[in-house]
């Protein structure tokens, strides 16, 4: 019965992927609406799958269908190149033109290290405590995503020129995820 509902809901993530691909193709006045529509269709498909297939099987099936649709778009964009032809070398990208200040380096190191780690740990705890499914699965998934999220937070923080934006996002993610985990654990 789950396969029937997965196939019945398949047009929603497929249409969402098409809208997001059209938004990615080029800028235009309709681009924000395409992005909003694409993500809305994907969220609607996930939300509709929960009562029809269950809180674990439904979102998993819809995400599998959506990611398969996106994989088709990626495969369609593959271009073949001659391996023997030498590519034109480009110069390395220029470093930030901002003046070097010692406290900015220390602050960036704090954001990339401990604060990104706390945000990643909060995401892992939130998944382990708040996500649906068996406790063993939640703990394994929550533990496995922490190093990847920490590495992503480090890379993003060190490459972004806006320190305040990095601080706001990392502090916000840490606060929301740890707060959700604490509230769920307290209840």
For the structure shown, list the relevant keywords.
187 residues; mainly alpha; 2 domains; 7 helices
Q: Portion of residues in helices?
A: over 70%
SSE string, helix = H, strand = E? HHHHHHH
- Tally of individual domains: 2
Please compute the radius of gyration using only Cα atoms.
Answer: 21 Å
Please report which band the strand proportion falls in: under 5%, 5-15%, 15-25%, 25-35%, 35-45% or over 45%: under 5%
> What characteristic shape results from the CA principal axes?
globular
Report the structural category: mainly alpha
**Mean pLDDT score, rounded?**
86
The major pleated sheet works out as: none
**What's the β-strand tally?**
0
**How far apart are the termini?**
34 Å
How many helices? The count is: 7
């Amino acid at each position: 019965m789950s396969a029937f509902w997965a196939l019945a809901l398949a047009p929603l993530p497929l249409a969402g992927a098409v809208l997001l691909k059209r938004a990615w193709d080029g800028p235009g006045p309709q681009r924000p609406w395409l992005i909003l529509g694409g993500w809305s269709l994907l969220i609607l498909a996930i939300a509709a799958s929960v009562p029809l297939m269950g809180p674990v099987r439904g979102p998993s099936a819809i995400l599998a269908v959506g990611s398969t649709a996106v994989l088709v778009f990626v495969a369609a964009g593959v271009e073949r190149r001659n391996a023997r032809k030498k590519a034109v070398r480009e110069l390395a990208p220029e470093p930030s033109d901002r003046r070097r200040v010692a406290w900015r380096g220390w602050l960036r190191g704090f954001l990339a290290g401990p604060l990104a780690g706390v945000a990643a740990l909060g995401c892992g705890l939130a998944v382990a405590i708040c996500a649906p499914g068996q406790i063993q699965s939640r703990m394994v998934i929550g533990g496995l995503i922490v190093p990847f999220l920490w590495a992503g937070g480090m890379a993003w923080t060190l490459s972004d020129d806006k320190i305040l934006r990095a601080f706001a996002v990392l502090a916000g993610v840490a606060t929301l995820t740890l707060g959700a985990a604490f509230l769920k654990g307290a209840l």
